[in-house]
Specification:
The complex is a heterodimer of chains A (318) and B (402). With 318 residues, chain A is mostly helical. Chain A contains 14 helices and no strands. Chain A has one domain: ABC transporter involved in vitamin B12 uptake, BtuC. In chain A, α1 packs antiparallel against α7, α2 packs antiparallel against α10 and α2 packs antiparallel against α12. The longest helix of chain A has 27 residues. Chain B folds into 3 domains: 38 residues; 192 residues, Rossmann fold, CATH 3.40.50.2300; 128 residues, Response regulator (Rossmann fold), CATH 3.40.50.2300. Chain B is built from 13 helices and 17 strands. Classes of the chains: A mainly alpha (318), B alpha/beta (402).
């Protein structure tokens, strides 16, 4: 192993390589399976990025769908409406244009995150949840009234640039970024804020800034996920980014176990595949889905995929 | 502990296993799932085992706020399907409809349509009645080259997606124009107030075209008020409209909102004629608005009180089968299914290109909603019927030609 790569970076590289191979073989899969797989990838990005805010930093945000919407609309406008002005910059090459659009979408979403975060992150608990909930609704209503992006009709005819490589590549980078951030000495501050805000502040941590960083990074990846979602579904509609969408992501984080990397990824996979598999049951689908959620919460309130981490086990043995 | 009273439920940390009650619950869930599954398989259509059926995919709002629309459309489709299969299907091959539910939610249609095409290998698609979701599905269908016929998506954008997308209803421009023409010529109204659901593409579209025609005909907009889906109180908007003294109010939306709007308008003492769009047509309108619905005017695709022979026959059959009278969208669903079956017959094969060509050449085809011709833009050309609510019933007022 080259000395400049640690184990997690190597894992990231390996994942990217596997995703690249999967992409080159994806022509053999039917388009339904492909779209479900990409839905899984997008949900992994959403859940992991929300996990940074809700799980690791201990803030309760209900506005993730709002950030997703900002990213989705920005990226879709760049590859669609503004493509004539914007794509010559990249020589009309989709493989350059698309990631650029995604990143700009992410940056705009991050700016939105900063905008919401600056005044509201001084709030705690329920109050923050209410502000972020309000933010999500405001974003939805703004897009509904913006004629430039189609208003209530939504934005249609977005090119389908999303593929396995982009979706899972981004998912791998998201998971790695969140992981690396938390395992850096700077990142321990997030956990400190989650554990005890007053103690953290007493130790000299700027808690508001930590919350802000978590919020902005989370919003950035949510924006990128939105861009991928828009280029997967070919159309986006403001009412698709409502409160329910935010809750869907929150459920993934809670089910996976707040503040667990692997657990949240598994929950994102499980819930996406489950909703697809339950289609067979027609009208009973939503009933079954909710019953399963209630059962899981009764039997595993600490999260579905939680096992003692090595460190915790060592602590127990000692 | 919340579960003190029921200590055996859940994962026991000490014995490291699930308690018996939990396993029982899991087993119960699994069994009920299996039960539902078999029901949905046999509860569908009787297909003969040795002949391969012709599969048609349907995606519609079977649940959620627009379930009234989706369910009534689906019943129409089902009635047509049963009639076609009773008559032997296509030379002995039965038709089969695979219905998927969009739950009235945005962002759900595209994956559903992908599934219907890639997994179920459908020959043609019956689209969602609501324009927004129909558009989402239309891009996928167009990409795969599978013909899609929408029963009730009236937004002009829908068929503009491409040469695979058709519809059997008239469009928003036509509806908005017709209502403006009707208001100017028949009601002699000049100043008209507008109430728009800003979150609904349907409502916004109708108002756009209504305004265009109204201004062209020398009318004027007395005032325009907006609201968002989910609002239940329209008094602020209605009071503002009342202050502008309109001679009529045009409020295109779906029946749920319409019922409340009508009710609250009358409570506020607004006595001007209330005009709507085809989304007003549902039994729920009168149920919600009660007496306030009296005098409401709106276009329909199909009048239940029609005296045309084929329409009367349809109403009889429908009422017999489902124990309630059909609505306009049921008739449109029925026509959509019949038109698709007829096109496959005319095409002589289930090849998607052949079916598309057959659909495109539809001329003077007689359905229960009237004689329709699919034009260059794949939209149906047919007259609109305007009805008025009188004593809780829809009474025919006039027919406006395209």
């Amino acid at each position: 192993m080259p000395s400049w790569l640690n184990r997690s970076q190597l894992l990231l590289m390996a994942t990217l390589a596997v995703v690249g191979i999967a992409q080159s073989l994806s022509g053999r899969l039917d388009s339904y399976i492909l779209s479900v797989a990409m839905g899984v990838g997008i949900n992994i990005i959403l859940a992991s990025s929300l996990n940074l805010i809700n799980g690791f930093t201990g803030q309760f945000s209900l506005g993730h769908a709002g950030f997703m919407a900002v990213g989705a609309y920005t990226a879709a406008v760049l590859t669609g409406r503004l493509a004539p002005q914007w794509s010559p910059l990249f020589g009309g090459q989709v493989f350059l244009l698309f990631p650029a659009a995604l990143i700009v979408g992410g940056i705009v979403a991050a700016l939105a995150g900063a905008l919401v975060g600056a005044p509201s992150l001084r709030l705690k608990g329920d109050y923050l949840a209410i502000v972020t909930l309000g933010f999500g609704e405001i974003i939805k209503v703004i897009f509904q009234n913006l004629e430039f992006v189609g208003g209530a009709k939504g934005l249609n005819g977005i090119p389908d640039y999303s593929n396995l490589l982009w979706v899972f590549g981004t998912a791998a980078i998201t998971v790695y970024t969140v992981w690396a951030l938390l395992n850096s000495s700077y990142g321990r501050g997030f956990l400190a804020v989650a554990d005890d805000e007053i103690a953290a502040e007493a130790m000299g941590l700027n808690t508001t800034r930590y919350k802000m960083v978590a919020f902005v990074v989370g919003a950035f990846f949510a924006g990128i996920a939105g861009g991928l979602f828009a280029h997967l579904n070919n159309s986006i509609n403001p009412s698709g980014f409502d409160f329910n969408k935010s809750i869907e992501i929150v459920v993934m984080v809670i089910l996976g176990g707040m503040g667990r990397h692997i657990g949240v990824i598994l929950a994102a996979i499980l819930l996406t595949v489950l909703t697809e598999m339950l289609r067979e049951f027609g009208d009973y689908r939503m009933v079954i889905y909710s019953v399963l959620l209630i059962l899981l919460m009764l039997t595993r309130p600490q999260g579905l995929f939680i096992w003692p981490t090595r460190k915790a086990a060592r602590r127990q043995n000692a | 502990m919340i579960w003190k009273g029921w200590p055996e439920l859940g994962f026991d940390r000490h014995s490291r296993r699930y308690s018996r009650i939990t396993w029982l619950l899991f087993a119960g869930c699994y069994l009920s799932l299996v039960g539902c599954r078999q029901e949905s398989k046999t509860g569908g259509l009787a297909t003969t085992n040795n002949v391969e059926s012709i599969r048609i995919g349907e995606f519609s709002s079977l649940t959620g706020p627009l379930a009234g629309l989706g369910q009534y459309t689906h019943m129409g489709v089902q009635l047509a399907l049963e009639e076609i299969n009773a008559a032997g299907g296509l030379e002995g091959r039965p038709f089969e409809v695979l219905a998927e539910d969009t739950g009235s939610k945005a962002g759900t249609a595209a994956p559903l349509v992908r599934k219907l095409i890639a997994r179920d290998h459908v020959v043609a698609l019956i689209g969602e009645g609501a324009s927004g979701r129909c558009l989402e599905g239309a891009y996928v269908a167009q990409g795969a080259g599978i013909p899609l016929v929408s029963p009730a998506a009236t937004d002009p954008q829908v068929t503009a997606v491409g040469d695979c997308i058709f519809r059997v209803c008239y469009t928003d421009p036509f509806q908005g124009t017709v209502m403006a023409k009707f208001a100017r010529e028949q009601l002699k109204a000049k100043r008209i107030g507008l109430l728009v659901d800003a979150s609904s593409s349907y409502s916004v579209g109708l108002v756009d075209f209504f305004k265009k025609r109204l201004l062209a005909d020398g009318g004027e907009v007395a005032g325009e008020q907006r609201y968002n889906a989910g609002d239940k109180d329209f008094r602020a908007q209605l009071t503002a409209l009342k202050a502008t003294h309109p001679e009529a109010i045009f409020a295109p939306c779906y029946f749920g909102d319409a019922g409340l709007i009508l009710r609250q308008a009358r409570e506020l003492g607004l006595t001007t004629p209330m005009l709507g769009g085809d989304g007003w047509e549902a039994p729920e309108l009168v149920e919600i608005a009660g007496l306030a619905a009296e005098g409401a005017l709106f276009p329909v695709h199909f009048s239940v009180s029609s005296t045309v022979e084929s329409s009367r026959h349809f109403v009889e059959q429908f009422t017999q089968r489902f124990h309630k009278p059909p609505t306009g969208v049921s008739a449109l669903g029925y026509d959509t299914m019949k038109l698709i079956a007829d096109s496959i017959r005319r095409a002589g094969s289930t090849d998607k290109t052949a079916v598309r060509e057959a659909l495109r050449s539809t001329k003077n085809w007689t359905g229960v909603t009237g004689v329709l011709t699919l034009d260059e833009e794949r939209n149906a050309r047919k007259p609109a019927t305007i009805v008025r609510v009188e004593q809780g019933r829809l009474v025919f007022v006039t027919i406006v030609e395209p």
